[in-house]
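Quick one, T. Sequence first:
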Amino acid sequence: MSIGLTIPENLLPVDGRFGAGPSKVRPEQVQALVEARSDLLGTSHRQAPVKNLVRDIQEGLKTFFNAPADYEVVLGVGGSTAFWDIATFGLVRNKAQHLSFGEFGSKFASATNNAPFLAESSIIKSEPGTRPVPVAEAGVDVYAWPQNETSTGVAAPVHRVEGADEDSLIVIDATSAAGGLDVDVSQADVYYFAPQKNFASDGGLWIALFSPAAIARAEEIAASDRWIPDFLNLKTAIDNSRLNQTYNTPSLSTLVSLNAQVQWLNTNGGLEFATARTNDSASRLYEWAEASSFASPYVSAPEDRSNVIATIDFDDSIDAAAVAKTLRANGVVDVEPYRKLGRNQLRVATFVAIEPEDISALIKCIEYVLANS
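Structure tokens:
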């Protein structure tokens, strides 16, 4: 397969960014940054202009997710990776149960399992491309899993665990799901994510919707004798978020572009608009793969297939890595598979900022590369 192959311009997508994160940023978000250059960028995050921006984000996200009135939007610096440690210190009282069905769910499981002040975690695993289900277990006070496994393209429902201890919490990693997959956030106590996926901003920030029970748990643990580093103290993040700020300085450009995306989503119909759009994009890929003689959806169970990360396997007659390289040489980028999965496949983000018609154009480009190699 020749990487030097030129794909005809009329076949190319308008925007060739299909990465699983950081994701495509809409031009309107870049324009919002330009407009913020004099009155927001380069100003103090403790003063009214930036605090008002944070407040707008918090209110916009509660609206988007149709969150219960008593849920709070908490923000902190460090992204979802930092939040795994924050939750380990500040949400798990004694024992967590994790669903591990890919790279990212396993990382939070490792964090709680390695914590010397917690009991050994209960970790329920399944093979990549499938998902396990939570099981009520006496003594477990946090049940945790990803709503969307970014490495494999498997989606898992968000729900309460039947039979779980009454004061247990449901903690959902929604980093690549939030803003693109349907959810009833009242079924979770903590629904956390970073903004570089469906919210089309940059990384380095974590955002979470907290139930009153989760707030109470964080306050309970913070008042105990457990030592918690200041940066990882969840009570500190909650207190600062109530003041429309973060404990330490956030990236203002991230906040500006995030707010622009939240406003766009809400103006167009909120979560219903977003989920219909990602479903449209993902369906185009899955239907194409199912009809193909050389490709197939990696996730075999249709009900487990993600609408924001589509993984497509190719048979041995096709070198998917070479296809990805040829696409990249033509400006169609970031469709390589997750490196640790090691499969002959393409991984395509169908986040809400991506135009469904660009997904159709991507399919035509793949077909052109295969037909002319």
